[in-house]
Structure prediction request, 284 residues.
Amino acid sequence: MDVKTRLENMSPEFTATERRLSALLLMDYPFAGLLPIQELASNTKTSPPTVSRFVSKLGFSGFQEFQRQLIEELKEGQRSPVDLQKTSAPVQGAFLAGFLDRAEDILETTKASVTEVQFEKVCGLLSDPKRSIYVIGGRMSDTIASYISRHLRQVRVKVFQLPPDPEVWPEYLLRMRPRDILLVVDFRRYQVSLAKLANKAHRERHAQIVLMTDPWMSPVAKNASEVLTVPIDSGTLWDSYTGALALMEAIVTRVAENNWDQTKGRIEAWDASRIEFGETNEEN
Prediction:
């Protein structure tokens, strides 16, 4: 279990001092926990022995083991397909059936990773007609960002997908108003430019950041008000986006149904405005 999950799961058991430590660690996770113990104690107005007792309560033998765990989590977030292949577990038996079994496991874990309360909150944010929605993903995960932006544009107005070229991003940043949503999809190996974009959107434009990421946490999480964490490790050289795509499909469906009369009218107007090129049996 990663440190962030331990902090969140054990929060009801914390004392006031421990809650202060936990809040600081989560505010700049995982980097706050990599500070020297004296500095961490000073930043939380506690003492090194208090910090030591706290990490012991989290299940670590000492502060060094606690920091080693954080360093391992950082390394996990930077693993490439070449790194993953070295520790991958071959699919046993019939390859397709075995691979789909792993995908099914990822879906089950996804179900446990996002609570209904958090899911409904994110769907509510994306349904709010007063907010504009800006969407972007990383090198590979932009496929998922494109999926949700294409569907949301048929459901509601004011949905924009940012292009991958950072030179164009200022145009979108200058459009953002306070309380608008920047939805970021970022999985390992995280894209530094996305973290910088989220920081500017949050601090300068006062936009609300919603992040979809993996258990090792994109740096975008530092500025995110909502973080949807989904499993991606399939035990092969490739990370799996099975859970991420299923969650996005659930979000799109929920947002569309939140105000079906409005959605229905939007889809009908959208279809009526399409330019036909003679294709038949079109997809949605």
About this structure: The first helix runs from residue 3 to 10.
